[in-house]
Amino acid sequence: MYAEGFAAALAEQGYRPGTVTRHLRLMAYVSHWLRAEGMAASTLSSATADAVLAHRKAAGYRARTSMRPLLEYLCAVGVTPPAGSTTVDTPVDALLARYAGYLARERGLAKDTIRWNVEVARPFLLGRQRGAQVELETLTAGDVAAFVVGLSRRQPASLRRSASALGPC
Hints:
mainly alpha
């Protein structure tokens, strides 16, 4: 619905055709994700974009394309509200903010390490989100092990670091 306008806007900004194509593919992925979640394009925010990118990363995609141009375009055409206006954190965002605070306060980790740990934990927690809650009460060691096995298939080189990020989660 918005693809032609988005492509034209990117071209006007000087994006190369290959880059425009990557942005359009990301837009299609976002559209499918929103539809699967039962969400409208108007609900797309930076928090939702983070969730989409985490899902995409967990599915094995490389993060080569930023969501910023898409968010800016949708805001410019009036589909989404401006960034920072009455954004509602998702339950996963709230939990990850607490986790990041714990890592900084209690463990004294560096900002880059905290960011890494949060991004590893995000897809795991998104997989446990049920409506407006993150279901951790029924979490088992098998659930964590299954997630780590999935990581080992997609990111074998960073498995040890990724698994340790889930330890205090």
